[in-house]
Design brief:
The protein is of the alpha+beta class. The protein contains 5 helices and 7 strands; from the N terminus they run αββββααβββαα.
C-alpha cells in the first residue's frame, strides 16, 4: 500500500501521529479480509480508541471512536504503523525502529543548517549513546553502545562497549549523555523487542 499521507492529513496531524507511533501508543494494526485496516491507539492517558480505515485507490476513509471521528491523528498513526509493518517484512526492522530511521532520514535531508537544540549534547559532555544496526537471525536489530569523543573532539574513540539502556531508563536521574530524545528512543526500542 503506497499512500501519500500528506495528501490526506495536515502537517500537525501527521506530526502528532508520528509522535504516537514513536511513543508506542499504537496497540494494534490488523488487515481485514476486505482490504480495510482496523487498529487501536491509546491516547497516552489510559483511554484507547478504535479505528476502521478503508483505502480505495487514492482515497483514505478513516473512522475513529475519538471525538474527532474522521481521519484524525489516530487514523494517521495506524496508517504509519501499517506502512512500517509492511517495510518491516521487507527490511526486518520493527515498526518503532522504522519510525526512528525515517525521522533520521528526514532530518538528514533537511536543507536548513543545524541549530543548537536542547537535545544536543553540551560541550562538556564527551560520552555518547550509539545506536548500531546488527544482524539478527534473518533481519536486523539495534544494539546500544556507549562511546567517548576523542581529545581532539573530531571523532569517537575506538573503544566502545555495550550499554545497559534498561538501567538508564529506570534511573530517576539519567546520565548527562542521555538526552530526552534518547529516553524516547530507548523506550520505543524496548517496546519493539
Amino acid at each position: 500500500m503506497d499512500i501519500r499521507l500528506k495528501d490526506h492529513f495536515d502537517a500537525l496531524t501527521l506530526q502528532r501521529a508520528r509522535d504516537y507511533v514513536r511513543r508506542g501508543l499504537v496497540a494494534s494494526v490488523e488487515p481485514l479480509l476486505d482490504g480495510a485496516i482496523t487498529g487501536r491507539v491509546s491516547n497516552g492517558r489510559g483511554k484507547s480508541y478504535r479505528q476502521q480505515i478503508a483505502v480505495k485507490g487514492d482515497l483514505v476513509r478513516g473512522v475513529c471512536s475519538c471525538p474527532v471521528g474522521h481521519n484524525c491523528k489516530h487514523v494517521a498513526a495506524v496508517l504509519i504503523s501499517w506502512g512500517a509493518r509492511q517495510d518491516e517484512h521487507k527490511g526486518g526492522l520493527a515498526g518503532p525502529v522504522q519510525g526512528w530511521l525515517s525521522q533520521v532520514k528526514e532530518s538528514a535531508a533537511s536543507e536548513e543548517p543545524p541549530q543548537q537544540r536542547p537535545d544536543d549534547y553540551p560541550d562538556n559532555v564527551k560520552d555518547r549513546l550509539l545506536y548500531v544496526l546488527m544482524p539478527y537471525g534473518t533481519g536486523l536489530r539495534v544494539d546500544i553502545f556507549k562511546g567517548r569523543i576523542n581529545a581532539a573532539g573530531t571523532a569517537l574513540n575506538k573503544a566502545m562497549r555495550r550499554y545497559d539502556a534498561v538501567h538508564a531508563m529506570r534511573s530517576t536521574a539519567p546520565a548527562k549523555f542521555i538526552r530526552p530524545v534518547d529516553l524516547e528512543l530507548l523506550s520505543a526500542l524496548a517496546q519493539s523487542r
